[in-house]
Amino acid sequence: MNFIDMSTNRRTFIKGGLMAAGAAVISTPFDIFLTGCAPVEPKKITISKFNLSFESEPLIRPFGFKGGYMTEIWQTASFLASTSGAHSIGLCTQNVLWSDAKVFASHTENAGNALMYSLTDKALRLINGQTFTSPVELLDSILPEVYEYGQKITANPQLRKTFALNALVGVDNAIWLLYAKENGIKTFDEMIPQAYKPALSHHHNKVAGIPLMAYNIPIEEIKAATDQGYFFMKIKIGQPGTQEEMLEKDKARLSAIHEAIGNVTTSYTENGKLPYYFDANGRYESKETLLKLLDHAKDIGAFDQIVIIEEPFPEELEIDVSDIPVRLASDESAHTVEDAVKRIQMGYKAIALKAIAKTLSMTMKIAQAAYERNIPCFCADLTVNPVLVEWNKNVAARLAQFPGIGNLGLLESNGHQNYKNWNSMLEYHPRKDASWVHVRKGVYELNRSFYRTGGGIFDPMPHYEEMFVSR
Question: pTM for this one?
Answer without folding.
Answer: 0.91
